[in-house]
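Let us work through a complete example step by step.
Step 1: write down the sequence.
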Amino acid sequence: MRLVNKKKISNRAAAILRGNEGASIVLVTIIAILIVTGVIILRVTTSALWASADKQLNQDQAYEMATSMGDSLDVLIITEKDIKLDEISQAGGVLIAKTDINELPDGTIEANVEKDPTSGIYTVTVEAHVAHASYVYTAKYTGSGNSYKRQY
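Step 2: predict the structure and record it as tokens.
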């Protein structure tokens, strides 16, 4: 019985649509609304993806800046022995003051040294900021004078 009722209703609807010339205008309007809605949804989705990509780019640049500076400092501390962590930590701990990076929007980088008085471990922290993204690179060292070893 339900199938018969559904058939009757669909037949009536089809007859109404065939009989009315205005029904085709309604159908075209509905299709146009669906297309416009689809375009709007696609535009919003595309904008969100571009914003996400820009944010990820800033995060990647901050990561690259911090790790590159941290690796360079690691070479200067361990291999070339140009940086004496004990002297820097006693003098306030500023290894690299906050420095602007001209090529990046709001790009800054700074490095500090702190010594844990109980364990004698030096912590070198490099903070990089690009736009609203930031990354912190941390390395720990033991030793004194010209001889330091990296702690992992």
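Step 3: interpret the result. The chain has a mean pLDDT of 85.
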